[in-house]
Amino acid sequence: MPLQAIPNARDPSVLEMIKLMSGRRIEMKRRVERITQEDFAANIGIGTRWLREIEAGNPKSRLDDHFRCAHALGLSTGHLVIPLLFMEHRRVFPRVLLEGDLSKLETVCIDAIAQHNLETLSRQLFTPDADANPDKKLDE
Question: Which N-terminal residues, if any, form the signal peptide (predicted)?
Answer without folding.
Answer: none
